[in-house]
Amino acid sequence: MEFAEAIMEINDSLTSSSIIVLVVTVGKYFETKAKENIVKMTQQIFPESILFKNMEVKYVEIKNRQLKIVDEKMMDVSLVEKNDVIRPAPGRLLLDAIIIQGEVTAMQSARTGCEDIVILKKGDRLESGSEVIEVKDCLAIV
């Protein structure tokens, strides 16, 4: 009789252990699937090819305070320094700048959260993450 009870206890322990292992394995499986779905959805919503397709800005070299343009060239955003003059272009702006000439129509939803379209003129701040929609003879200082 004692032998049978010992076998039953071992059987119960093995059953409990196998159920625990099964639950942990199934949980890990669903966790992995959920992570894959989150990565896939994130790539669909925020594809890097769209977010960072324009990593260059048009750098403008000016001669004097009347903003006489000497040279314009495309430059990587990472090379732009404080007080450099740029010409904003339609698309996502990846740095902060202050408009010094002309005007820009932009949607600053990255900053404000609402998709209001604003017209920025001389002296207004154009912030990083803004979606530039239209540019009218604009220069900005970083």
Description:
The chain is of the alpha+beta class and 142 residues long. The chain has 2 domains: 2-45; 54-141, Calcium-transporting ATPase, cytoplasmic transduction domain A. Helix content is 37%, strand content 34%. It is built from 3 helices and 8 strands, in the order H-H-E-E-E-E-E-H-E-E-E. It has helices spanning 2-45, 48-51, 109-112; strands at 56-62, 69-76, 85-87, 91-92, 97-107, 117-120, 125-126, 131-141. Strands 1, 2, 3, 4, 5, 6, 7 and 8 form an 8-stranded antiparallel sheet that branches. It is rod-shaped and about 105 Å long. The termini are far apart. The mean pLDDT is 80.
Q: What is the helix/strand order?
A: HHEEEEEHEEE
From the coordinates shown, what is the CATH architecture of the largest domain?
A: Distorted Sandwich
What name does CATH use for the topology of the largest domain? Calcium-transporting ATPase, cytoplasmic transduction domain A
Secondary-structure-based class equals: alpha+beta
Low-pLDDT regions: none
Largest sheet: 8 strands, antiparallel
Rg over CA atoms: 29 Å
- What integer is the average pLDDT? 80
Give the N-to-C terminal Cα separation.
88 Å
Query: Considering DSSP H and I runs of 4 or more, what fraction of the residues is helical?
Result: 25-40%
CATH superfamily of the largest domain: Calcium-transporting ATPase, cytoplasmic transduction domain A
Total strands: 8
